[in-house]
Amino acid sequence: MSNLINFNRFVSFTTIEGPGKRFALWMQGCIINCKGCSNQEMIPLINRNVMEVSDLFKAIRDAKERFQIEGITILGGEPFIQPRALLELVTLCQTNNLTVIVFSGFLYELLLEKHPAILSKIDILIDGPFIIEKLDKKRRLIGSTNQRVIKLSNVYQNNDYFEQNIIEAEFTVTKNNSMIINGDGAHLINNEEKIRKEEAIKMGSFKLDGDVFSHFTQDIIKVGDKLEFKGTNADMSDFYLSDVKTQYKVISVIPSIDASVCYTQTVEFNKNMKDYPNARLITVSRDLPFVQERCCESFRNEAHFLVSDYNYRDFGTKTGLVFTALQILPRAVLILNQDNIVKYLEIVNPIGNEPNYQAIYDFLDSRK
């Protein structure tokens, strides 16, 4: 009889969870509980999706036939707290000529002592707990500098995938219109001239084409309203709007920094807001804080706040500016005065367009 495996979710085809085309599996449950873990929903030791390994492998075999995947990447949660299921799964993968990459919070030395049979069937192990104070800003998919990329077979000996300084994300819409985001962020685009509107996420595939106002499910903020909200800074500390003391606050709202229109919007405001010393720029999205930081660190100036609404979701709740079905923010720009009263509001419609930058600069010019 096949072992039972408890997992959170899987993606049948991805190109950003390791070399080549891969099947990605996120296990459920973790006993390490790293501070700042980006997969909080995978930590609880609860049954999420439980099935026999042999049945799960049918989905993997189907992915191999349909997408010509070369391997599987197993993440978490913590894979090694389900050793019997993990051993059966990696054995099936090896037997069917699929490479195996595993992320674990445990150190290689401990795993070699406790689970040598599993390690013998893994091609790459990324080991060690995530340590938020040691953020890794250079390697692909690696959370902190203490974590090691250990090549246990010869398959990827000459492959530098994890050494590349690339941040990227994939968006998958499921049959029930929920959205799965995997990867650790977005491509860092160094040549701004290559950022084009047509490279933006085709939001129509997220059922967000057409009138964006039809996707709001509560009253939205308007000019004359007062706004207060709490968010998370890039260093994981709390952000309070009331702590920003300036004559005007320009709040640039974006769906996700990894979409090139969002990136363009962020670069544009960051570059030009320096001409307005009486205003501070605040970029808000529901990206993870360290993803915002890694995407913007090459150009962000000190007067630019990066605020994540991922944890508290206070901005979306207070303003009504949230697409409830997907739990992402729209594209919008708000200008608040020193009392946090909304004096200017643009909700970009359709979402693939950029804001009216000139109208925003004209507003600020008139109040210098």
UniProtKB/TrEMBL annotation:
Encoding gene per record: tpx
InterPro entries in UniProt: Aldolase_TIM, NrdG, Redoxin, rSAM, rSAM_sf, Thioredoxin-like_sf, Tpx_Peroxidase_subfamily
Species this chain originates from: Spiroplasma kunkelii CR2-3x
Stated name of the protein: Thiol peroxidase
Organism lineage string: Bacteria, Bacillati, Mycoplasmatota, Mollicutes, Entomoplasmatales
Residue ranges of domain Redoxin in the record: 224-359
Entry's Gene Ontology molecular function annotations: 4 iron, 4 sulfur cluster binding; [formate-C-acetyltransferase]-activating enzyme activity; metal ion binding; peroxidase activity
Keywords: Antioxidant, Disulfide bond, Iron, Iron-sulfur, Metal-binding, Oxidoreductase, Peroxidase, Redox-active center, S-adenosyl-L-methionine
